[in-house]
Amino acid sequence: MSSWRVLGLISGTSMDGIDIAVAELSTSGDGTARLRPCGSTEVAYPAELRRRLLAALPPAHLDAREFCVLDTEVGRAFADAARHGIAEFGDVDLIASLGQTLYHWVEDGRARGTTQLGQPAWIAEATGLPVIADLRARDVAAGGHGAPLAGVLDALWLADRPGPSIALNIGGIANITVVGGPEPLAYDTGPGNALLDAAATRVTDGATASDVGGLIAADGRVHRRLLERLLADDYYRAEPPKSTGKEHFGADYLDSAVREVDISGPDLLATLTELTATTIADACHRHGPREVIASGGGVHNPTLMAALRDRLRDVALHVSDDLGLPAAGKEGYLTALLGWLTWNGLPGNVPGTTGADGPRLLGAITPGARPLRLPEPASEPVHRLRITHTTTPLEAE
Hints:
The chain has 397 residues and is α/β, with parallel strands linked by helices. The protein has 2 domains: 4-153 and 328-387, ATPase, nucleotide binding domain (Nucleotidyltransferase, domain 5, 2-Layer Sandwich); 160-323, ATPase, nucleotide binding domain (Nucleotidyltransferase, domain 5, 2-Layer Sandwich), CATH 3.30.420.40. 34% of the residues lie in helices and 23% in strands. Strands 1, 2, 3, 4, 5, 6, 12 and 13 form an 8-stranded mixed beta sheet that branches. A 5-stranded mixed beta sheet has the order 9-8-7-10-11, sandwiched between helices. It is globular.
């Protein structure tokens, strides 16, 4: 296979904007793929669109008109983001989009369906490039959870690390990928920033949508009784693979939890920070890791990272930048990788990480301005991923 420049697009469960990353991807034919980060950034959603997206989350009832409007407006926002990425980082060959998850239907511990907004036709029309989208549904149809798809990047990226190693992503929902055991394992551990964001909005009367830098939490004390109540949620004891989202850990969940609790804003944020750190650390300790490598928006919250470091005790905690993969752009690079795999006829899921019945080609392709010509499918699977722009101290260990 020749080298391909792929632009990845995704908006996470925080719904604060669209992550953009451009990667150059290639393979040498020995089962090793190479990813060269070419740049990443984020563009915010228009304020009114973000308000409507948040208002559409469960338990809201969404009619067909509003669903159509949101799918179109998110598609247009993603198209604008793609043009922005091309203008900033240069021309690309194709685009991959994970869209905006609106609802993840889990029942009796099994994913039954998943809905991502962001009609890819708008992206193809705006750029003239082929777009690979709807990347979760096939895994769900094959018995998987469709999440966390980060497992495919992490399993390849950490394949040669002395393990066990855990890749941690702290987005709205936190998830881990365990590499170095009998087979890769990945699952959502519970809330990352989702409840923290809901609480910050609540205690500031909407003045801020997040606890920037963990400053509010840093002024508070953990409310032990509330923390115990939150930790009693059955999700934490469910066996992996498992997945969750704001349909469970959302604003209504928080309102119910604090309904009869007299608590200050800083104490609420401190308690929720402890909840996130404790549930992540508990999940990590189950697998006896040598190291945890973190990425996602949560790594920019010093209060959360200090709590997590304390709970992990003697387990080394790094950020993904230490291994050459920019933490801020990791989900965008993941999306680019998923698109590249599909484009070259390679499966984009790891059954041990999603629970699917087997490896599957993911997504649907919307042609660009030219006739669609796919490359010859890869003749062998990919077993490892190298980040190629620099050699870091950790990579040299």
